[in-house]
Description:
By secondary structure, chain A is an alpha+beta fold. Chain A contains 21 helices and 22 strands. The longest helix of chain A has 26 residues, at 318-343. Chain A is extended, with a radius of gyration of 35 Å. Mean pLDDT of chain A is 76; it is low at 129-165 and 258-311. By secondary structure, chain B is mostly beta strands. Chain B is globular. The relative contact order of chain B is 0.20. The model of chain B is unreliable at 13-25 (pLDDT under 50). The A-B interface holds A 1-6, 54-56, 189, 192-194, 196-197, 232, 236, 239-240, 242-243, 573, 618-621, 659-661, 663-671, 674, 676, 680-684, 694, 697-698, 701 and B 1-7, 10, 12, 56-62, 68-71, 74-78, 109, 111-113, 168, 170-175.
Amino acid sequence: MSIDLSQFIPTFLEESFEGIELMESSLLNLAQGDDETINAIFRAAHSIKGGAGTFGFNHVTEFTHLVETLLDEMRDGRREVAQKDVEILLDSVDCMRLLIESIRDDSDYDDSKIIATSALLTTTLNSEQTSTINTYEDTADDVIEVAANKLDESSTVVVASDTDSNKCHWAISFVPEHHLVQTGNDPLLLLNALKELGDITISANCNAIPSLTEFDATELHISWQVELITDANYEDIAEIFEWVEDDCQLTIKKVQPASNIEIIDENINRDGSNTSEDKSSATPEQEVVVKPASNASKKNSNAVSKSKVESGSIRVGVDKVDSLINLVGELVITQSMLSELGNDFEPSKISRLNSGLEQLLQNTKELQESVMRIRMLPISFAFNRFPRLIHDLSKKMAKEIELVISGEQTELDKTVMEQIGDPLVHLVRNAVDHGIEATDIRLANGKPEKGTITLDAYHQGGSIVIEIKDDGGGIDRDTVLTKAIEKGLVDESSSLTDNQVYDLLFEPGFSTAKALSDISGRGVGMDVVKRNIQSLGGRIQVESTLGQGSNFKVFLPLTLAILDGQLIKVGSEVYIIPLITIVESLQVQDAQINRTSGDMVLYRLREDNVPVIPIYKLFNIPAQNKEISQALLVVVEAEGQKVGLMVDDLLAQQQVVVKSLNDNYQQVEGVSGATILGDGSVAMILDVPSMITMALKLAKTQQKSHQAAEEVVH
Amino acid sequence: MNIQALVDEIPVEGEYALEGLDFIARGEQYLTFSLGIEQYAVDILSVEEIRSWEQPTHIPNAPSFVKGVINMRGVIVPIIDLRIRFDIGEAKYCKTTVVIVLKAQHENQYRTMGFVVDAVSDVLNAEEDDIKTTPAFGGSLAPHYIIGLVNVGENIVTLLDVTALQTIPSHQTKQ
Lengths: 714, 175
């Protein structure tokens, strides 16, 4: 039994989260008489309960047991699948998630919700009790047992706190099967564990031991009677026997020396691990349950800090691993071919060397792609939470909404996936709250009563596009503009394109909602959404037709770890510009250079005026070429702004592996990271948006110092 | 009472095997090095490796004592010149210039940084009693860098705090 159980906890957590997700999505699709789905939900709940029991997470076990009982009744057809019950079950799933998360983060949780939900569950279970008795009178025995179970389940929530003080007398009969010791269980350990619970008297029954001739030393023929006086409750005792409950006849009885004794025997060997408890103590559970709820909510009302521990594991399909192994095999063959070639090399073999190197290049490339694919997950991981969200929101807002999801098999890097979840939730909420109109308005506009929100994901070029589309009212350009002018974000005189107007939505504190709702409308969030997407190297684009709906498109890079880069040279330094930002590279032509408004250099690129940023000035480094007239210009675009970066030389284009400067140093302005080039030297990867901000800051300080100088003169 | 507690009682093989390492873990050995004519030392357990000087890649707008970053077996490691940082001696780079790579914990992650010094000298054994507090008359070094002073023969060695050494103020664009 010397297994360190804690090593299995991460697996338990992972499986529990999967189970919870399965329960949630199945509950949302649950229809009357759909036995297969109910069974699936039941199985998920049962595994979570079992796992939690094994690791001693009693609060999870207790709570899940209630859920399981309700599901069990649905499964047996003793209970109709009512919408009300499904809602309670959905709430319960939330609670289970809360509990499991608290285990994962090793943190406290707000138990008011748990207590409230378990009270709800208990009431539901009990309310059925009377009607059950009425309907199934012929199977009265069965029913009473069920009722008894229900009662003590409700009590387990309460009893845990109030039995502490009074010591009880327990009689335990432990009759192991003959093969118990062969499964690696030692009865001595179990009895020692019992001893720690309180005062104990053990008597062994050795009558069943066979004569020496028939005796098999690997079989156990002794049984025990244990008298235990302890303040521990039934669960604590049963837990000790948890691992052996299938291999023994176990009876745990409560023997109370007091008068009104009512004992329910419980044989754990039966299916399920039901609990038994004194009926009389369980009767007033309704009032008792409510009180701790109010206390707890006061106690825990201060926000629970959700420290998110990034999970360190990833599930990979076997096919991906297999392809990786194949590729490594090929790599090994190429390597041995090359080393054989090197053993006795002569100039005549140069063509074979070349083809070997070619093969190596091919292998490396494929290997790289294959390894990157391991980090890729289908986007359904991020989309899965939305059916529930829409379900809850549409109920809350009294809007009928249908969610259409497509392209959920599109794969996305795990890191990107983890960070895109919250921004997507925000966009979907916005679509429900601001996008889809109220039902009466929809009908008046000749639209179907039910609003539609479409989530779609697909590849486009080197990026992934996620669309959040609604068929609601669309964005009213004029309202946005009026509000922006009111807030002083834009000048009244300025004429803006549609895109520029929609960009205003992402300004901090901007909201056009006429009334605040608790879903959205405070104007906090869209700026965060945009920032989050940008920090992932992506962008967001809005399309909207008034009266027809809006479409938010999120463009994300396929992966964060590798990017296509253009190597450039300034002075003696090599930098890398992400290829995705580059519009074009060109040789400066004198005629196109304009100096305006006090030495601001603009380059005329067709009809655009592109400001020129000399990298050497921005980074304070020496450069070969400080004159724009002979320079090379790399025109880049970020956040809709085009700038020309002045460089000394253009070098190769290549894929580079992004390494963080943050790990050992700090974030550096104008640089998104570093990479290691083929010759082993380090090169900085330029961060174009941040360089633009730097250039703007630089210009501002110049203007300020100029202004100051002016004031001195006056 | 649960199964886990039972498990805990049974000693796992090898659990106590690390006891013998205690005497090293107390960190009473220091690596001494020189900056100009002065002697300094850092906890020897934080020393990752000692390398020769190579030209690092410049970091845009970094403070002058941050020489840049190098590639140390695939890890990007920043290089700090202690002579410039402490304003001691002369910052010249020749064949004998060495870089001491130090690793220390910051909050919950390890940071690796290289520090340029004039020469690495010796390993110093110092008991806790040998470490004296710094007089408050103060040289150019801020007191938070210094753990204490140790007398070695005729000379004095300054013990430096690695975590403080690795803390670099965030730099902004030079205006």
